[in-house]
Amino acid sequence: xxxxxxxxxxxxxxxxxxxxxxxxxxxxxxxxxxxxxxxxxxxxxxxxxxxxxxxxxxxxxxxxxxxxxxxxxxxxxxxxxxxxxxxxxxxxxxxxxxxxxxxxxxxxxxxxxxxxxxxxxxxxxxxxxxxxxxxxxxxxxxxxxxxxxxxxxxxxxxxxxxxxxxxxxxxxxxxxxxxxxxxxxxxxxxxxxxxxxxxxxxxxxxxxxxxxxxxxxxxxxxxxxxxxxxxxxxxxxxxxxxxxxxxxxxxxxxxxxxxxxxxxxxxxxxxxxxxxxxxxxxxxxxxxxxxxxxxxxxxxxxxxxxxxxxxxxxxxxxxxxxxxxxxxxxxxxxxxxxxxxxxxxxxxxxxxxxxxxxxxxxxxxxxxxxxxxxxxxxxxxxxxxxxxxxxxxxxxxxxxxxxxxxxxxxxxxxxxxxxxxxxxxxxxxxxxxxxxxxxxxxxxxxxxxxxxxxxxxxxxxxxxxxxxxxxxxxxxxxxxxxxxxxxxxxxxxxxxxxxxxxxxxxxxxxxxxxxxxxxxxxxxxxxxxxxxxxxxxxxxxxxxxxxxxxxxxxxxxxxxxxxxxxxxxxxxxxxxxxxxxxxxxxxxxxxxxxxxxxxxxxxxxxxxxxxxxxxxxxxxxxxxxxxxxxxxxxxxxxxxxxxxxxxxxxxxxxxxxxxxxxxxxxxxxxxxxxxxxxxxxxxxxxxxxxxxxxxxxxxxxxxxxxxxxxxxxxxxxxxxxxxxxxxxxxxxxxxxxxxxxxxxxxxxxxxxxxxxxxxxxxxx
Length: 764
What we know:
Layout: E1 32-33, E2 43-49, E3 59-65, E4 69-70, E5 79-88, E6 101-105, H1 138-147, H2 154-167, H3 184-211, H4 214-228, H5 242-258, H6 265-290, H7 299-316, H8 321-336, H9 352-373, H10 381-385, H11 388-393, H12 415-428, H13 431-443, H14 451-454, H15 459-469, E7 484-487, E8 492-497, E9 506-511, E10 528-532, E11 535-538, H16 550-556, E12 565-567, H17 578-583, E13 587-594, E14 597-603, H18 605-608, E15 615-625, E16 629-642, E17 644-650, E18 654-657, E19 660-664, E20 668-677, E21 683-687, E22 705-710, E23 714-727, E24 735-740, E25 744-751, E26 754-761
Antiparallel strand pairs: 1-4, 2-3, 2-5, 5-6, 7-8, 8-9, 9-10, 10-11, 12-17, 13-14, 14-15, 15-16, 16-23, 17-22, 18-19, 19-20, 20-23, 21-22, 24-25, 25-26
Helix pairs in contact: 2-3, 2-15, 3-4, 3-5, 4-5, 5-6, 5-7, 6-7, 6-8, 7-8, 7-9, 9-12, 12-13
């Protein structure tokens, strides 16, 4: 008897049914995803046809699909198609077929099929090494190193990243936390110790094998066997410290692969056994427990596909049966479902710092896959465009001018961000990306030893790998950068003027995202940051301490730390319930640039719904006029009278006077003026506390200053705020006048002889 196929409606955290009629197909073939069957077991069948009746002569059927995601191995001719799926139970008996869904393939799409499982590794060699250099490639690299050790990056790698580990004592296995309760400083030191294990093993092994140096090989073996002796069920288990576990698995994979020919059979079996167990821990969490093919918003689980499953399974492919299954899962996920945090515009909902972390491991993994199997995921639309995200949302000269969790908050743009974007320069040939890389290195030259660099990657190794695998791209300064960049996939809008010159650069970044406050996102829908003339003016307030610290949960994630509003003292939901996080959404309704005006309209109504159930709507509009001044229009409608607090955060104490506030920076200043409030004049105040935060978490750090501009109670509010940034010492003001008409308010702004009009609808 067939098993009934249960087809639930999507929850906010669940994988979507795709493609459907409304789906924009971005690549050929399309990617198929569906909600898993209620009684998942066995496998799925998927039928694809140009005929809604699925006539046999027009229907392709794909069998033995183990998960609810699938990429065909062939491209489709342009046209209309239909698809459905069924669950194959014991004995191969099929359930009823699912609902039929349709889609259209348009001409000219990127062609990105995935070879099926039977031929996926046909080009993969059985010899070692396989990670980065292939065995057949190794002699050519040896010759290149001899000819040009500086040009290949080898000389620096050997001196700075490899030889020091030949003299270092072996690192002791980390001890448990006191009472097995995590302490942030010990957690960080533990994973840095494990990162050093990776450096020692990988770099000594690569150096020894390339140079055919017996002494270096012996040192590498000593480190590898020492790492293999650590208890995989101890303090570096995936469930005790996943960051430590990821690094230990990677260290063993690189050591096993590169030292394969130097290990005895007994040593190989021992190292491979521990590597298998550590990989199994991660695979179990990803596939069976977290099930990112069902609910894809587990940031660490998704990252571990790159940092663990791909290198570890590549090293063991053909030697451990489970390795092939796990590698298939990772490749199929990268093909069909990656990335859950963005789309074809290249955005990253978790923010630019987590773009950096994810892309660092993803690009390394995709390079391994490309070289070992010939499968090139860089042809997918996301990877062709994602370099735009840091370019526009984390420009290299900006500080505190992006959203979400950032371990480098307050520092110059992370150096690894530059290395990542250079990778995409090599893939796409985009000179803007190369410019970003070179500017980042110029502005941030000595940060290699900061924990968020040293504990995660080694730039000497990265440099050597890139020089061997990718061409040098000529930089192109962003003189023609887009004045407004809308990342529709994540709901971020960036407005820029003169990105090429830090002294003239003005950047307004705003967001209203369908991802709400899930994962590393915050309660900041409709919020903005502003950087101008070399100075952060409207900032992301607070400091990075650790995930789940009081600074993180009580301030950084909370709406009160953002440049947005509170309603009756309440902000957006940003707690620990992932369903509510994902429901606290925002939307960019419209964004455009024309005739010297950049404009964005955003709706964050649902973000406030949990704490302000009587909200009817909250809209915010941004105008960047003549690349010189900003007008912010807030529309708040409530089912009962309420008070609005307009929030603003900066590095400096402000001068408050009447309906104005002045930010007195070092390189720049900014006047803020409330030019219209439907409930009358606002009450302005400021403070420099991080409310609700343990003072020990920011001891010794400079205070930030927080403005609150409060309305009177009303059921509807209209606020218009004028922000005028200027270079320090300059007096260049915007004038305005108001025309209060029956159906609305017209505000006329004049700057340097040019007049602009902003229309505001009256309250209910």
